[in-house]
Amino acid sequence: MKINLDTDAIRTISLFQKLTGTHVLDSYDGDEIYFIVAENEYGLAVGKNGIKIKKAEVVFKKPIKVFEYSPDLERFIKNMVPQTKDISNQEGKIELKVSPSDRSKVIGKGGYRIKIIENFLKRSHEITSFKVK
Fold it and tell me: Per residue in 81-120, pLDDT tens?
């Protein structure tokens, strides 16, 4: 997995790593900050009772979402979208099935959240498309 990051992203990742003691593989900074942490480091990133995330949100002045990386594509998708019912992978074209009640939460306002998830998947697992049904 090779990802090119700009200077701001590197600073953001570095600060988050110092605050949480985790190894960050990727990030996205928008209205919220999303971090992909190394496998088995989700608990370390969040901290007991969410204390590390709360502290980081105060420092960054934004809500923070943390996802745990997995080299297994299906596991990685389920880490980012726990509401997943079924995953179809046809030659890099991912189709995700969620219940109708969870669909809007997964997609986000104007597709904001799903675009971020798709971007992470394209950068880490080289998928070609990602759809939620």
Answer: 999 999 999 988 999 999 999 999 999 899 899 999 999 9
Owner of token pair 């990802």: 3
Structural domains for the chain: 7-68 (3.30.300.20), 73-132 (3.30.300.20)
Pairwise CA distance, residues 72 & 54, whole Å: 29
Return the percent helix, strand and coil in the chain, to nearest 5.
50, 25, 25
Beta bridge partners of 30: none
| Strands of the chain, DSSP E | 24-29, 33-37, 64-68, 84-90, 93-98, 129-132
pTM of the model: 0.90
Those residues whose C-beta lies under 8 Å from the C-beta of residue 125, and which sit 6 or more positions away, are 73, 76
125 C-beta neighbours (distance < 10 Å), count: 17
CA gap 133, 125 in Å, rounded: 21
Contact in structure between 36 and 29 (CB atoms under 8 Å): no
